[in-house]
Amino acid sequence: MSERKQSDKLPSKLSMIRSATKQLYSSARSVKQGLPVFVSPNIAQERFEICNDCEFYDKNSTRCEKCGCFMKSKVNLADAKCPIGKWGKHE
Ligand code: SF4
């Protein structure tokens, strides 16, 4: 049986666009409200370690197979969260 392509494991393009747009909007709202946009390096590292041990994390592409996001970037955003609740927003 052949291995699935990376694109077969990711959400649909529409879903990824929707998710990225939602994240951008949320970060813009944080800036407007004077809230932090980024978490500390320690929090980002904690989040990344959870992803790194997760069955849905693709270490080759550094993307999450649930949301399609590039996790090395996403873990730094204060209002980002794991789509299946393994880590959440950081206020
Ligand atoms: S965001 Fe959640 S589902 Fe995605 S790789 Fe990280 S822990 Fe896993």
Task: Please explain how this structure is put together.
- This protein is mostly helical and 91 residues long.
- It has a domain at 13-74.
- Helix content is 44%, strand content 4%.
- It has 4 helices and 2 strands.
- It has a two-stranded antiparallel sheet with strand order 1-2.
- It is globular and about 45 Å long.
- The structure holds iron/sulfur cluster.
- The site of iron/sulfur cluster has 12 residues, from helix 3.
How much of the residues is beta strand, in percent?
Answer: under 5%
Largest sheet: 2 strands, antiparallel
Estimate percent helicity.
40-55%
Order of helices and strands: HHHEEH
DSSP, total strands: 2
Separate helix tally:
4
Strand order of the largest sheet: 1-2
Any low-confidence stretches, pLDDT <50, length ≥5? none
Task: Report the span from N to C terminus.
Answer: 45 Å
Radius of gyration: 14 Å
Mean pLDDT: 90
Q: Cofactors and ligands present?
A: iron/sulfur cluster
The computed structural class is mainly alpha
Shape: globular
State the gist of this model.
By secondary structure, the chain is mainly alpha-helical. The chain has four helices and two strands.
List keywords for this structure.
mainly alpha; two-stranded antiparallel ribbon; globular; binds iron/sulfur cluster; 91 residues
Topology of helices and strands:
Elements lengths: L5 H4 L3 H20 L8 H12 L4 E2 L4 E2 L6 H4 L17
Antiparallel strand pairs: 1-2
The site of iron/sulfur cluster (SF4) has 12 residues, from helix 3.
